[in-house]
Amino acid sequence: MQITETSSEGLKRTLQVVVPAGEITKRFDDRLEQMKDRVQLKGFRKGKVPVAHLKQMYGRSVMAEVVQEAVRDSSNQALADKKMRPAMQPDLKLPEDEAEIERVLSGQADLSYSMSFEVLPPIPLTNFEDLKLEKFVADVDEESIDKAVSELVDRSVTFTTEEGRVSSTGDQVTADFVGKIDGEAFDGGTTEDAVIVLGRGNFIPGFEEGLTGVKAGDEKDITATFPADYPVAELAGKEAIFSVKVKEIGAPVRPEVDEEFAKSLGAESLDQLKEYLRERIGNEYAGVSRQKLKRDLLDQLEERHDFELPPSLVEAEFNGIWGQLEENLKRSGKTLADEGKTEEEARAEYRKLAERRVRLGLVIGEIAEKNELKITQDEMRRALMEQARRFPGQEKQVYEYYEKTPGALAELRAPIFEEKVVDFIVDKAKPIERKIPRQELFAKLDELDS
Question: Which segments constitute the PPIase FKBP-type domain (predicted)?
Fold first, then answer.
C-alpha cells in the first residue's frame, strides 16, 4: 500500500492512498474460499461448489464488498502510519470514472483514492499546579435549618373549610372559572373545582389578588394579564377576564414543630430531622461550591490553552447549538427579537460558545489521554443504574435503550468523563479553601448564570 501526503495547510490534510490490485485480488480469492465452505447450491454438496462457479454467480457483489473493506482498512492504516488523528470522519473521494471502477472491480487496476480531513492540533498542557483556584465553603447555620423546617411546615399545611370565611393570603380557595380574551374562551382557560392557595403565585399576576376578600358563593370577574414571557405564545402579554364562582374557602392549619411532626416526616425525632436537614443543606452548599470551582477551573483552562481549532468541529458544535435554539424557539412560539437579539448577534454569541466547548473538550481529552484517565465499567454501571432508577418499572427498557443506542451511551459517559478529569486537575491544583457566608456563596451561583 502506498500513502502520499498531497496537501498540508494548517490543520487540513489530504492523503492519496493506493491499494495494489494484487492485494484486492487476494482478499477476493480468500472471500470466495470462505464462501465455498458455507454456500449450499442445488446440484452441489455443501463445501463442494467450485470457486469458479461462485465467482460467476457472486463475483461482482463480493468484489464490491471487498473493495469497501479495503477502503476502510487502508484508510485506518494510512492514518496510523502517518500518526495523524483526524478531528472528524475523513472525506473519501473514490474513483468516479466507470471504466476505472470496472478495472478495479475486475482486479485489473490498483484501487486509488484520496482522503481529506482536519487533524487534531498539538495541545501543550499547562502546569495544573499553577492554577489559582479557590474552594468556597459555607457553614450551615441555625437560621438555614429553621428556614428549611419552616418550608417543611408550609408543605404540610392542611386546610379546614369555614362557612362565611373571607379569604386572605394563605387561604385555600376552591372555585370554577371561565377565562376569555376579547370575549372568546381560550384553551386551558376553563376549569372546575380549581384549588388556589392565595399568595403562592401559581397563577398569572392579578388572578390570586382578585380572589382576596371573597367568600363561598361569591361570583366576580377578575382581570389578569399573562406575562410577556408566558410559554404559550398566543396568550403571552394578553389581558384576560375570568368569570369566577367561589365554592369554598379553607383556613390553613399549620402543624406544630414538635416530635410528632418530625415522626410524620419519617424521622425518629426532631433532632434527627434537623440533622438530616443540616446534611441536605450542607450537600447543597457543596454542590454550589463545586459548580463555582469547576467554572473557574474551566475558564482558566480555556485562557491558558490557545491553539488552532479544527473548523469542522466548531461548525458541528455550532450547528448542534443553533439547532437546539431553533427547536426551543419553535416550541415556545418566540423569536430572537423577543430575546432582544438579532440573528447576527445570536450567531456570534453561540459560535463563541461552540469554540469554547470544542477547545475545552480537546483539552480535557488530551489531559485524560496523557494521564491515562478512563471511565471504569463500575462507573458506567452505576451511571446506568442511576438513570434506570429515574424510570420506576421501566428499568429493563432503559438498559435496552442504552445497549442499542451508542450515541445515548456516549452522552451518558461524557459528563462522568469530564468530572473525572476535573477531579484530577483539582487534586493537582490544590485549591485554597475559603469560608464565606451562605448569601455570598449563592451570589456566586447567580454570577454563573449571568
Answer: 170-230
The grid coordinates listed for 421 are 478529569
Grid coordinates in use for 193? 373545582
pLDDT, position 58: 64
* CA separation for the pair 242, 221 (Å, rounded): 5
What is the structure's pLDDT at 50? Answer: 61
Q: Which residues of the chain have a pLDDT value below 50?
A: none
For residue 197, the cross-strand partners are 172
List pLDDT tens digits, range 63-111: 788 888 999 999 999 999 999 999 999 999 988 888 888 888 787 889 9
Residue 142: how many other CB atoms lie within 10 Å = 9
Instruction: Answer yes or no: are the C-beta atoms of 36 and 54 closer than 8 Å.
Output: yes
pTM for the full model?
A: 0.78
Contact 317, 354 (CB under 8 A): yes
Task: Report CA torsion sign: 33, 35, 41, 44.
Answer: positive
Domains of the chain, first to last: 2-118 (3.30.70.1050), 157-253 (3.10.50.40), 267-305+349-449 (no CATH)
Q: What is the pLDDT of residue 51?
A: 59
